Structures are given as C-alpha cells and as structure tokens.
Fold this protein.
Amino acid sequence: MKNLEIAKIFYLMAEFIQMDKASFISIAYNKAGRILESLEKDIEEIYNKGGLDELKKIPGIGKGIAGKIEEYIKTGKIKRYQELKKKCPVDLEKLTSVEGLGAKRIKFLYKKLKIKNLKDLEKTAKAGKIGKLDGFGDKSEKNILQSIEIAKLDKGRFLLGKILPIARNIVNELKELPETENISIAGSARRMKETIGDIDILVISSKPSKIMDFFVQMSGIDKVWAKGMTKSSVRLRRGFDADLRIVKEQSFGAALQYFTGSKDHNIALRKIAQKKGLKLNEYGVYRNNKQIAGKNEKQVYQAIGLSYIEPELRTNSGEIEAALQQAQGKPNQLPKLIGYNDIKGECHCHSDWSDGSETIEGLARIAKKMNYQYLVITDHASPLGIVHGLDEKRILKQMAEIDRVNKKIRGIKILKGIEVDIKADGSLFIKDEILSKLDLVLGAIHSGFKMDKEKMTKRLIKAIENPHVDVIAHPTGRIIDKRPGYQIDFDKILEKAKKNKTALEINAHMSRLDLRDVDIRRAKQAGVKMVIGTDVHNISYFSMMELGVAQARRGWAEKKDILNTSSLKNFLKYFK
Ligand code: DGT
Ligand code: CA
Ligand code: CA
C-alpha cells in the first residue's frame, strides 16, 4: 500500500508551501493527506482499476490531487514536491516534530543559520545562537532544546490506529490458508495500547511450514529477520516488524495469554501460579508436569485462581488483585468494561462549514450507517484562520441547515453543537446567548498551550464553570509523541468538573487519545462523566471510535461512565 507514503508527501508539501504563506493550496494538501491516510482501500488498486477517473471518485479528492497521486504511482515521484524541497532543502519531517517550530520558522532558521536538520538545530541552540534571533529569545531556545530531547527519545513506536488495520490485513491473509486452524493478534496490539512496538500474531496449526513460507513472502515484506517452524520475524516495508508464532491446539490459550502480555502482567501471574505450586508458561498451566489448562485462555486464568482479565487491562496496575478478589466472591471486583458496540452517537464532528470535508447531510448518512441514534455537529468557533471557524451569524445559519437535514433524513437525529475556543482568560469565543441555543457545547483549547500550571488550571476551570459548556474536548492537549499536554492540576479539574456536571472528552483520534488511560481511571474514580468523540474531519474518522472505546476500556471505564452510550433521550436530558 502506498497510501501512507503519498499522504506523507502531501503533508510535507503543505508544510513547504506554508513556509511562504498560509494558502488554500496547503490546506488542500493537508486534507488530501488526511483522506489518504484514512483510506481503507489500496490507492494503487483503485488507480489500476479505473485510472484518474477512479481516483476522482474518492470523496474529497479533486482533479489536481488525483493527478499528483497518478504521477506518484507511475513515476515514484511528485515533481512539484521535488521542486519545493530544492528551494529549501531541510529535513522538514523531523524539524516540524520539534514543538514550536512551524514551517515559517524553519525556513527562517535555514535562511539565517543554514539549519537543515535536528543535529544542526541542536548544535546551534546549544551555542546560544537561536535565542539571539529576532522572534526567538532565550525561552524558545530552551524549549527547542527540550523538545529535541523528546524527539531523540522516539524509540520507533507506531500509533495503534496505523498498525491495527495492517495487523488485521495480515491476519486475514493468513486465515485464508487451509493450514491455519485458528489465529489471533497478540502483544500490545491485542491490548490496544496507544502505541505499538511490533505486531505479534499467533496461529494454531499442526502444519506450520506452509504458513511460515507464506508469511516471509507476503507482499510488503522488506527483510526477514528469522524464519523457523515456531517463530518467524519480518520487517515490513512500512518500517515496522511483525512476529509470527505457531503453536499446537492444546497450547493456544496459554500462548495467547503469554504473548499478549504485558510482560509485567505475565511476571505477576507466574508468581501467583508458583505460590500455588503450579507452573505457568506459554504451553500451559502444569501441576506436577501434567497440563491442567492451556487450550483456552479463560481456563488459564481460572486454573491459577483468577477471574478472566480483558486484554486491555493487562498492565499489572491492580487488575490482578481485582481478579483474585472477584474469583473469591469478594467486593473489590474488576470493572464491567464498556463494550465496543455500546456507543449510540458521535459527539465530536466537523463539517465543511469549518475544516471538515463533508457536508452535514453526507455526515448524517454515514452516522446512520454506523447505526448511531444521533450525531452532534461541532464545528469550530475560533479566531484561528486555518480552521475556518463559525461566528455567531454562521452558527444560526448552520442551525437552520441542520433543521433542514433532520427533516430530510429519518432514522438519525442531527444535534446542534459547537467546539468553541477557550480564550486565554478562560472566557469563550462565542457569547452565552448563542451557546444557550445549542444542544451540546464542547469547550477546547487550541492556542496558548504554554501557560504555567496555575493559569492554565484557572483557564480550564473558568470554562468548566460556564453553565453552557457541556464537555471539555481533548482535555490535556497532548499529541502522542509530539506534544506533552498542558500543565494542569488534574485533581482540581476533576473536582470542578464533577461539581458542575461538565463532562470530559476521550478524544478518539489516533494521535490524540486524550484523556490518557490513567486520566480516565482517575476521572471515573472522581465520579466525572466522559464522552468519546472521534473529532471527525472526514468520513473515515468515524471508525476511530474503536480506538476511543479501547482507551476507555484501558482506563477501566464502564458503560455508565460514558455518556454517549445513552439513548438520544437520556443524552439530551443529561446536558439540559
Ligand atoms: P510492544 O511490541 O513493545 O508494543 O509490546 P509487546 O507487549 O507486544 O511486547 P513484545 O512484542 O516484545 O512481546 C510480546 C509479548 O510477549 C509481551 O507482551 C509479553 C511476552 N513476553 C515477551 N518477553 C517476555 C519476557 O521476557 N517475559 C515474559 N513473561 N513475557 C514476555
Ligand atoms: Ca509487540
Ligand atoms: Ca514482538
């Protein structure tokens, strides 16, 4: 699949263009990147099927972008991209990962100090030359050095949202083989961890050799690290590794348990088994060298005296103690986790009225297909030009359009919402009078991330206390491996959210997943309700709901903790 390769080039082109000025062309390239990134079908296959015309049928892909995709598929290059790169030959990808460095500043640094990559940047910053530049200062020099350290820590982990479709593809291919008797994803991907080191797959077969042959010759393989009858390991061209292990039927449950991990969870389990005089390994649970469990994962847990523990909980952070208590009928039980099919509505969604790419009507049709009862349109209301936010006049206009769509499309209710910017002082970008007309108001911080802890906490609390604010969207502001999140006193935020019945969002976007699992657990304990929203910008985002639910599960959340598991009636009642 070339989808991600091409998406990356589009993103970089957008950045290069922004070096000179913010323009609609760069917005268009960004949008194209997002569409490609989330496209489930192979772009090359689409092209081979029907050429340029077929590409243009992809929602949101116009003639210009389709031409560029064709050029890449045919020649392996995009000429315009080469030209842009020539004009300013910097490692944009790495440099933009440094917080506070946008395209414009990168160009400035290149022109002034010939900084091309992270190494140049670090050297120059350490020599104190950046602080002296116009518009930088000592503080931003310090920030740059700090984020270079973060960028260096990048240990080659990948977002779950990127890995999962690929892992599932491999599983589907292996499933086709007649020798495959049973198969499962294992490792961190089965635990739905937010980032993944490598893909682990477990197969049952009594004839492993054909399966291993197939595995090391699949499409998309770059290198074979190892090939054997029980374990093989490959590097995929996309840059990450996949391990395949094959076991016999009588060990499937034990192997699945072992290779799902986490390692800490496994070590703790083995200690419990040992205390009971049992042996636990990837082949089974043994008493006096006789297997007493192994075929089935649930029985492995039971054999050592525990209730079954869902993979998302296996981090050795209290789940084992709870499973032990539960098995003994004591009160401290495992949570009854929210299920992947419990969500009744999407509550964070941008349309083409701001920076989304789909019409309200189009979004309504997709949400209906998802079997949702409701969809809340929450376009931006923000002074940031790039999101093309709504002002008060356009909010009223949009409300009328939503009424029109509701009349036209049955079987789904479109609710009127907004994602309104929380200004530096905690007040909102839209007047209360207008907000009071809406069904759902998400308050969000989109600028001024660097405030000190006290100020930022006050800012958020002021928004939480506004009676019109129903939900705080992406409450910590972190971007996985890119931005750590604002400085906030989270306990205080929870206390105020609970008091004001303001919900916190679990933003399900693959690179946000914000709240984090630990935050969700604290929110639940504090009695704060949450919603899960995918932050739709085009139709493919809807499927990220799965990642949000996984995040909620990893945070021990139950159905009752998550408000958009409620029916339309109860959802509206809560926020009234
Ligand atoms: P990753 O790949 O870094 O995202 O994380 P995992 O959890 O997928 O780790 P990985 O791929 O190294 O190993 C898969 C599982 O195998 C891991 O979750 C638990 C098990 N495992 C690996 N090494 C050990 C070990 O030394 N002891 C025990 N008890 N289990 C291990
Ligand atoms: Ca792994
Ligand atoms: Ca592995």
